[in-house]
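URGENT: need a sanity check before tomorrow's submission.

F., can you look over the tRNA (N6-threonylcarbamoyladenosine(37)-N6)-methyltransferase TrmO record below? I want to be sure the sequence and structure line up before it goes out.
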Amino acid sequence: MDRTSHDLPDTVTLQPIGQVVSRRSELTDDHWGDVPAVIRLDAARYGEEALFGLEDFSHLEVVFHFHRVPEEKIETGARHPRGNTDWPLVGIFAQRGKNRPNRLGVSRCTLVKVDGTDIHVLGLDAVDGTPVLDIKPYLREFGPRGELRQPQWAVELMGAYY
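Structure tokens as predicted:
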């Protein structure tokens, strides 16, 4: 296979656009649904105009960095989700755990309001101080088409998540 025009770069550099401000600072897995948080943009780089029109949406997709996961805890193979041996051994890319190779999180949350460069949300599963890499309005058209399929262990795992 010729990789000359499709070689992967050695690194990708990202700069946070802001950070999460939340009363939740512990890395716990469940009960995120009613947790309020603020995504505070870096006001030195972004003004209020960066958020014009955002309040017209009910939900957001937020990309963030699991900054509190030490590099030595990164998983690249398979593991039992949450260490539960009742659930199958699955690869890191078949689960949404925080110990991923690039420590990237993606979350959908409810937009409550925009106040200057502060975005108030509910249900963002990121702790206080989390670097935010991107924010996008959630569009129904970007949701899955057709029926969803997921294993029973995932349904059990998510039972108390939100």
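My own read: Residues 152-157 form the longest helix (6 residues). The chain has a mean pLDDT of 91. If you see anything odd, call me.
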